[in-house]
Amino acid sequence: MTAVTAPLDVDALRADFPILGRTVRDGKRLVYLDSGATSQHPVQVIEAERAFLTEHNAAVHRGAHQLAEEATDAYEHARARIAEFVGASANELVFTKNATEGINLVAYAMGNASTAGPESARFKLGPGDEIVITEMEHHANLVPWQQLAQRTGATLRWLGVTDEGRLDLSNVDELVNSRTKVLAFTHQSNVLGTVNPVEPLVARARSVGALVVLDACQSVPHSAVDFRALGIDFAVFSSHKMLGPYGLGVLYGRHELLAAMPPFLTGGSMIEMVEMTRTTFAPPPQRFEAGTPMTSQAVALGAAVDYLSVVGMDRIAAHEHQLTVAALDGLAGIEGIRVLGPVDGHARGGAVAFVVDGIHPHDVGQVLDDQGVAVRVGHHCAWPLHRRLGVPASVRASFYLYNDLADVDAFLAAVRETRRFFGVA
Amino acid sequence: MQLQQMYQEIILDHYKNPHGRGLRDPFDAESFQVNPTCGDEVTLRVRLDGDQVADVSYDGQGCSISQASTSVLTDLVVGRSVGEAFGKLDAFVELMQGRGTVEPDEDVLEDGIAFAGVAKYPARVKCALLGWMAFKDAVARAQGGS
Q: How far is CA A425 from CA A303, B3, B96, in A?
């Protein structure tokens, strides 16, 4: 563990992100508060991808020429680095198109298990079985399970959300029971910022033999996360939310499970032997990486992980906590603001969603944009959560390592300006 | 500041005091439209009297742009023939999709010209067209006899 002593030198960090130097909307300083949607990229990551393409580019895991060797080494080295970053082994990490595909991979593999042999029996689902999710899930961790339930005849159930924006665990023992095959939940809500209590949920799932799938898209980029220590079975996270390139997600699966799980996508690269009428499959992770993989992107994500590690995940988390508390305190001082989710900094990350009385979130976002403040507006791919909280949409500011208190101040000033502009101040 | 170009007084007036709002009977067809990126929605009813648009009524939730443009729509199409109404719809769609390069005709679009500034913000064009797409769909349903 890195000691949280020295604060981040944000000015020095910002110099690594060229985009933060540009202006928007007639010369305004860019205040980028939309890292929950996608983060910006430091030159070190851009350069790593460029270097791979200009020096080592070749198709990996095929061909015996020197470039093929170098490319394969770079790809697998990146996998090992990324695995270490999240407390996993290299053979437990599968590269996918994005985190959404990672969740679909598990859901479809479970569907495929229903017609596979006895070796994948533990992934089988059918009528009478239950899948448990939560009401605060991103659509990516909701729709695949809902659809899997519909395909297999299993029943979808979910943990509710309290008015404060925490998971309602009062009926967890009833919801997660001997019929439960999968418990899938988000580590950190992309809307509320809420950090969910993994430990008791894993303990409950373990006691009934259910598999645990963790959506770590909003936790891995922002704090030190150790999948093995958390005791989960599967997890996903996303490259582009943690300084890495687009087009790449990561699925973690305990090796024993990946080894027993049938494939999702089939084709080249994922086979052991092919005959005209049958195929045997490669061991994981290759079994789940059909086709030519996202090579330069994985190499660049390896560089992103190096960058984050040098800065220090605990320092990043402490820095974001400071910004989050400043934003929450500032919003509390403005009339007519309702924050969705925890209003203090306890067990919450740096996503701050809110609504302004009398002004639609789209209109709030427009005035913020006019001030150079980039936030997300809408339901943030969590429509059922917004319905639960009684609002059609919200405004979300989200922080990352390159934001500073000046960004928070600009954001708060822009929120006040919104109320003035629409005549509700 | 470009903001005033988007949020013309006309738009804010229609937003605060919408025309024709509320669902009314009788009606011939109803359309429900939603903007999946933000969750804004509108339910719009049309009553035709022969070839005339006899009434348009609507309810919904959404931003100032989507609500105001639906309010303007009712002013523009109620009492007109379907052909005239669709002519205005075409003109409004052309204006909104013009990225700020289309000069609107006030004789055709009346208060609708206030949305010219919105056309410069591609992310908001869908908002402005939400009610209009509901109108187009509802008329098609009414004429289809469904």
A: 46, 18, 31
